[in-house]
Amino acid sequence: MIEKLAQFTDIRCCLIVGGLSTKVQEVALRSMPDIVVATPGRIIDHLRNSLSVGLEDLAVVILDEADRLLELGFSAEIQELIRMCPKRRQTMLFSATMTEEIDELIKLSLNKPVRLEADPSLKRPATLTEEVVRIRRARESNQEAVLLALCLKTFKRSVIIFSGTKQSAHRLKIIFGLSGMKAAELHGNLTQAQRLEALELFRKQEVDFLIATDVAARGIDIVGVQTVINFACPRDVKTYLHRVGRTARAGREGYAVTFVTDDDRSLLKAIAKKAGSQLKSRIVAEKPVAECAQLIEQLEDQISIIIREEKVEREARKAEMEIAKVIYFKVQFYVNKLIFFCEFQLL
């Protein structure tokens, strides 16, 4: 986003996150970029271990999604990073919620802060159409078929689907792929490079569906998302609003469809009441659901084979990494031994 905004200026930006090459990042930091976008752990790693990388010329620190950073366990890293920063600086802290932990961080990082609130109430976009698909107890085993039928017949492009687990997201991605639908997945089992690739594919509309866990629910702004489908019912109003907030942005129209089982009906009613949502009921016809259920049943063997092959591939890759590690330490041992021998001979 920053690169796009700054493309006609001389402002230079670099990305410092885990999962990408540290050497490339080190070179980028040494080139003195104007803006550095980073995760706390990786930037601290560079400050500790990379030569000629420091914060002496830092002018502005921005802590974005501060509440989320604390939820993910970055409290110690943020505090350490703040202590590394020069005292003469401007600090900006952005947070969707104000908790006790955020107040403590404010005391640590800000000096005489000015607080600005943008629409502090929990509100949904006025251009958002919200619907609910009821999954009755007898149909719970066919929930995947209901989703597939809905995406084949109605919501065909620019759709984000939120699943409850990483395993569910991956399985849905396989089902969509075997059904001839272009989909990408976004969850915690992927590397940083794989996540960025999935987002780019969806952003460029090379895939029609992004199947994600809540890792994608915040901080991601993709223009033109037409529909959000909550395959797994959100557990609270904050999660609901963050998910459906991926569509109907900047005055555009959008749809949010939430699947709800009989067990979660009262929960969704409470969420809708807090959010001020008027949920319309959407009926998915039985015939396409039955056809999709039959299709998924026929695909089960292929799904199992794919998951099994992926597991074997992961284990093989892990074994290769372990072997490479052993070889590296052995080589290092003999190199150190040789250096010691040469130094001894020189004496």
TrEMBL record:
Q: Kindly give the InterPro entries that the UniProt entry links to this protein.
A: DEAD/DEAH_box_helicase_dom, DEAD_box_RNA_helicase, Helicase_ATP-bd, Helicase_C-like, P-loop_NTPase, RNA-helicase_DEAD-box_CS
Q: Cite the entry's keywords alphabetically.
A: ATP-binding, Helicase, Hydrolase, Nucleotide-binding
- Spell out the molecular function terms from Gene Ontology: ATP binding; helicase activity; hydrolase activity; nucleic acid binding
Family the UniProt entry places it in: Belongs to the DEAD box helicase family.
UniProt xrefs under PANTHER family: ATP-DEPENDENT RNA HELICASE RHLE-RELATED (PTHR47959), DEAD-BOX ATP-DEPENDENT RNA HELICASE 28 (PTHR47959:SF14)
Name of the featured protein: ATP-dependent RNA helicase DRS1
